[in-house]
Design a protein that fits this description.
Elements (H helix, E strand, L loop, with lengths): L6 H10 L13 H5 L5 E4 L5 H17 L3 E4 L7 H13 L4 E4 L1 H8 L6 E2 L2 E2 L6 H15 L2 E4 L4 E4 L4 E4 L12 H15 L4 H20 L5 H20 L6 H4 L2 E3 L1
Parallel strand pairs: 1-2, 2-3, 3-6
Antiparallel strand pairs: 4-5, 6-7, 7-8, 8-9
Pfam family, one: HK
Keywords: ATP-binding, Kinase, Magnesium, Metal-binding, Nucleotide-binding, Thiamine biosynthesis, Transferase
EC number: 2.7.1.50
Amino acid sequence: MTNTVVQNFAANVCLATGSSPIMSMNGKEAGDLAKLGGALVINMGTVTSDTLDAYVAGMKAYNEAGNPVLLDPVGGGATSLRRQTIQTLLRAGFFSVIKGNEGEIGAVAGTTDVQQRGVDSGPSFSTAAQKIAMVRSLAETQRCVVLMTGATDYLSDGDRTLSISNGSHWLGRITGSGCALGSVIASYVALHRSDKLVATVAALLHYEIAAERAEKLCHGPGSFIPAFLDQLYLLGTEIRDGKYDNIGYDARIEWL
């Protein structure tokens, strides 16, 4: 259940990373889709009263089936409607992963002073220690994995916390890069349910290392998109075939 702005790009990213997307916004078919054993992404980018009803129906269906649900509270700190939507969803069921930028994670936690401009965060005045504390506290409260994206990403499941500093500046220059990341994380968590934090880390590294590779091949945001899709596919193929052995060199991870 992703927003209408990014459906095509998110679907192509899913295909490039080996998953099989269906872009359904109809809560009435959520029960049938939940039986397929995948994961649900709830992306608030184009929230309306109708889509909110679909989100709640989908969340309940996937919770009942025991399947992962990822919340991407796009623009969550921008308007009172979006903040209310977040609270409605938090009361409606359980999330496996909550991902967003600093403003969005702060809106979920109810502790942010960052004002969002649309889906983007405004200037951050938080220290690294404050960001770490926020993701760890929210993960403990919601009993799920929390990912705060940015130049440095911060992740926690309440017990383990780490940062990742991979990625490309071009990701911030194209529409839907964060939304598509949510779909990749959801597919990884659907496959590796025993440790959602490890699955999230693996998805994030796949995504951001592919972006780094694509950056070396592109000339701007227009050429970055096809290069990125190619590198997502090629890196995934290398991993699957056991031909990728640079993870220790490429991954910039710090346990906190």
